[in-house]
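Hi support team,

I'm opening this ticket because the web form for multi-chain structure prediction keeps timing out on my end. I have pasted the exact lines I submitted so you can reproduce it. The total is 538 residues across two entries, so I didn't expect it to be a heavy job. Is there a limit I'm missing, or should I split the entries? Thanks in advance, R.K.
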Amino acid sequence: MAFLRRYLRSGAGMAGLLIIATIALGAIAAPWLAPRDPLAIAGPALLPPFTDARLPLGTDRLGRDMLAGLIHGARASLAVGLAAMVAALAIGSVVGTVAGFAGGLVDEALMRVTDAFQVVPRFLLALAFVSTLGPSIGTVVIAIALGAWTEPARLVRAQVLSLRERDFVAAARVIGMHPAEIAFREILPNALTPALAIAALIVAAAVLIEAALSFLGLGDPNIVTWGTMIAEGRNLLRTAPALSLLPGLALVITVLGIYLVSEGIGDALERRGRTTP
Amino acid sequence: MTAPLLEVVGLTKSFHSGGRRVVALDDVSLSLAPGETLGLVGASGYGKSTLARVLVHLIAPEGGSIRFRGQDWLGLNGAPLRAARRHLQMVFQDPLAAFNPRATVGSVLTDPLRIHALAPRAAWREEVARLLTRVGLAPEHAGRSILDLSGGQRQRVAIARALALKPDLIVLDEAVSALDVAVRAHILELLVELQRASGLAYIFISHDLAAVRAVSHRIAVMEAGRIVESGPAARIVRAPESAAARALIAAVPHLVREKQG
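Hello R.K., no limit was hit. The queue was backed up. Here is the completed structure from your submission:
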């Protein structure tokens, strides 16, 4: 994999990969690292960090294990971020391909819909969607994807517009390939690169929006998320700052890691552009 | 005389660029018998590629008619057109641009078999191997990426892709122009051999009169979107009547010397 080799040569990419791999491992191993329900009481309330070896990061105002909360929160954040990214890319690439390949009125109509989604601030859109349909992890994912698919759609459409004039598309028509197959099997895979380059940015934005929704009480109430932890710790900011600082720090590190990964992907793609004619 | 395979009458097509109307095809008529090669020569920008793309139904002309295999070719569209396309194939000029960069040789050659259900899935491997052998490549090439092949090998794969559908006519648009001289000669030989073996007809488009002369039975000379002269290949080369044909022959000095001496 030449791409992987180029990626590993990028310093930012390596750093990001290390951060995200650590968080992801923690998230995947959550049932073994913190086997107890993170929403259950584990000890005395408001235990400060680094005072009890069994509860290394202390407890919150209800006596719940902070470390367990952080680990399980990583799960929610990454799962929501990745799922929203996949959904946004799927919607965006289908819309972009159909618009670019069909052209004419279909293109006009789809791009005006894209405009309509793009002028609404993403967070407001997510907020409105979740408050209408009720908070659950599924609606949160869809709510975030609804605001994030427009950019990939535009990038894919621009690629499709140039690709559809290429000879290999003409060759596919000459052998009698169905237009739908030409669009989705011949053109789309070649149009995805720029959209994939911003995939990591979509994940980062999704993690932040998810945290913000949870902070406002619109997250899934049955799972721990960093946003909810920050919201609960907020009232005790003066007496127990760790309650909001720790999940806040986790959020910052995660988003930073994702940005670095995105930087690495960008570097790797750019280097390929330089080496191939 | 047998019924013509292809009969083109009065094709016209113009493009608009920067407010100016550029005539690409101006009342082009031609006909082609089964198993025959028509060479189409002309300097660049005289509408040869436009004609190729109109013939294979990639772009629509403004006027004129095309009868192919006794059918109104331009009147076809949708599924009947896709089905009929197997009889008329095309080989493109740039052997790299004509393939999906993600394709392998095997996938390129199975696509036509799959689309037109020409062979059961179990027989694809064997059929691909047969096609590759036919164009002078090894069956082992099937697993290679298109990007790993040389220009000449890619053009062989392009010819194999066209052959996969067992067409009656292949339009070759500058199919050897991007290749170096030695490879060009091999591809031309291959084309003639395939024609002898299976009775294919070709429309061979090139600005290179030497290459056209080598494969064509008849030659038509194009200038500014019109066919200015046509006739048996030997006659056109020996006694060109139009200024355009004379200019093309003057551009290939060794060919003239060969004919005179």
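A quick check on our side: Residues 99 and 110 of chain A are 6 Å apart (CA to CA). Let us know if the file doesn't open in your viewer.
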